[in-house]
Write a structure and sequence with these properties.
Blueprint lengths: L16 E3 L4 E3 L4 E3 L6 E3 L6 E8 L2 E11 L6 H15 L1 E13 L2 E12 L2 E12 L2 E10 L3 H14 L1 E2 L2
Antiparallel strand pairs: 1-4, 2-3, 3-11, 4-5, 5-6, 6-10, 7-8, 8-9, 9-10
């Protein structure tokens, strides 16, 4: 069982952006969510959508949503475990901080947090992972490790507004 997307968009996000002013709705993947106030909506390869706050030290705190079609019968626990194994390989100095059960868009989900390094940046990550309609969905929030206190409430607000529409 390979693909299982552990996409973490932690590069400095330099692209065309628009300010997110209302709920983001994605008809193709069947979800909506509201970005933190004043954050910009970006496009980034591998992500359905990315929202980024102001840059600090060359890095923008961001929240992104990814999704992938899953093999038949894969459970949320299997999806989360496979994704974490991939993260260990993809993120330098990966350190798992913990996991808890939550609800995302009305579906059972796991929220996990971890730290690691990508390039020059020591980062803090938090992810909400769920399975819906034969697809895995991962909402990832990323910030400079010392700025995690700004990411945590932004991510909580995003998760609270995340809804499946199909």
């Amino acid at each position: 069982m390979k693909p299982l997307l552990p996409v973490v968009l932690a590069a400095a996000l330099l692209t065309t952006a628009t300010t997110a002013t209302a709920a983001y709705v994605n008809s193709e993947y069947g979800f909506s969510a509201t970005a933190p106030k004043g954050w910009k909506q970006l496009a980034y390869p591998g992500a359905i959508v990315v929202f980024a706050g102001a840059a600090s030290g060359g890095f923008s705190t961001n929240i992104n949503v990814t999704s992938e079609k899953l093999p038949a019968g894969i459970s949320l626990a299997q999806y989360e475990a496979a994704g974490r194994e991939n993260l260990k390989k993809a993120i330098t100095d990966f350190k798992f901080l913990g996991r808890r059960s939550i609800t995302l868009g009305g579906q059972p989900a796991f929220e996990q947090s971890f730290t690691g390094r990508q390039g020059q940046f020591n980062l803090y990550f938090t992810q909400a992972i769920t399975v819906s309609g034969g697809r895995g969905f991962i909402v990832t929030g990323t910030s400079i490790e010392t700025l995690r206190s700004t990411l945590i409430p932004a991510m909580a607000g995003f998760e609270k507004t995340f809804a499946f529409r199909k």
